[in-house]
Amino acid sequence: MAFLRRKIQPFFSTFLNPTPKFPVPKFLHSRAQSSNEILIDAISDSFKKDHTWDTLTRKFISLQLNHSLAEQVLLRLQQPPHARSALNFFYWSAKTKNLHHHLSSYCIMIHILVRAQQLADAKIMLESVLKKNETDIPKLSVVESLLDSFKVVPSSPLVFDLLVQAYAKLRMLEGGFEVCCYLEEHGFSLSLKSYNLLLHVVQKAGVNCLVWRIYEHMIEKRKYPNEDSTQTMISALCKEGKLQVYVDLVYRIHGKRCSPTVIVNASLMFRVIEECRIEESVGLLRRMLQKNLILDTIGYSLVVHAKLQLGDLESAWQVFEEMLKRGFSPNSFVYTSFIGAYCRQRRIQEVDRLLQEMENLGLKPYDETFNHLIEGCAKAGEMRESASHCEEMIRRGLVPSCCSFNEMVRGLSETGDSKKANDLFTLVLDKGFSPNEITYSFLIAGFGKEGDIQEVLKLYHEMEYRSISPGLLLFESLIKSLCQCGKLGEAEKFFKLMKERSLTPSEDIYEALITSYCGMGDQTRLSLLYNEMAIRGFKPTTLFSCDTSTKSAKV
């Protein structure tokens, strides 16, 4: 604001009003000020008369136009009846006087146009100024300048809606959202139309993370969604491939089909809770319940889930008891959330009790329930129960998550039951399971430990057939397994291959190779491996001295 005020001071004021060394007659300043006013009047009056550019150029051929004078002329023409004259002057001064208008001049002109309801011209100018300043100035400079000039040319808050809409049209998406937040902080609330346009463009661009941030911001600022907003968010869920996930989630809670609005808002709540932003989730839920954007039973269930995410079991049970007292039925989502919480604490007896209670109530465990059971039992070392839950899951036509299945495979392989892990692996593959590098790494490590080199190599080639690119973890399991089985030639082949693929061998790989070569008494190869370790900054945990017949370790 201070900058703009300085800009619209009389053109010669700073020149004619220094601190004088000698007395200066006061009428000199008045005369200069008067002269400047006369010039501004002459220019503005001429443009009000709709003269042609040629006539105006001849009339003001000797005019030395600068930014300060130009802005004062614009301000003189700011009233709605003179908006076209102001626009004419703006373009004339740029074309004939080669004046490169400052951002502040653009913003004054935009306000004049919006105030006069010349919205088409205002939109063109907004897009022009955004393109011009996209890389040259900080992101918020345009909105800051518009806010400053709004105090001088009081147009309408509509100007800020047009600004956000221009950002959307130009696909300047992050910038558009930043401007929304900045305007809200400065007391300007955008229209639902502007938010919907920004949502629509962001969704079409496939920036799903930003779509949900904008939608959450809308509800925080009490810009409640309408049918257009909901349709955009349903499209976002479709694009993410998660619509059916959340349709199923609300059905498990409510027991009936729900409206698209409820599905979208439950999805938002679930995302915020999963990100452990519990305080934000409470505020969002309160607003949603006030406007009936979400059902009470879903609200209660999500609060229980949020408490469990924080590890507050006691508080979660209190909310659950209150939910039952208010006449809401227990549901499979809430029970699954409790099962997950107890699994994370490895309280398997409580998990079994909850599962039995759930089934007694006629509530069906679903994929997430079984994933908690498989992973929780495996982490607690209850491998028989983990495998049993996996088999039951498969029997019901469900496929475990990669994370839970890998945890079970790890446990079975470490306890010497790689065959069981591999049999279950075959079953889930037939059901459409998609393994990753970790799955094969655990299986290879397990069979390597048991000395089954054929199964080790078979799994590696199967992984390659599935076009899963081996990384450090896989090569580490493979090379260590080959060393354990005495297949140093094969181990060296894969050691060379991983380096060809620009993968840096781990310290464990070097230790496995060194241990094997020490057993063979190959002092030359041993020295080379030690040197490589030193170059890579590794320090062997055990120092070996070898001869051709014995191996001794010096710790």
TrEMBL record:
One of its GO terms (cellular component) is mitochondrion. Coiled coil: none annotated. GO terms for biological process: mitochondrion organization; RNA processing. The keyword Repeat applies. PPR repeats lie at residues 296-330, 331-365, 366-400, 401-435, 436-470, 471-505, 506-540. It comes from the Eukaryota. GO terms for molecular function: mRNA binding. Keywords: Repeat. Pfam families: PPR, PPR_2, PPR_3. Belongs to the PPR family. P subfamily. This is Pentatricopeptide repeat-containing protein. It comes from Rubroshorea leprosula.
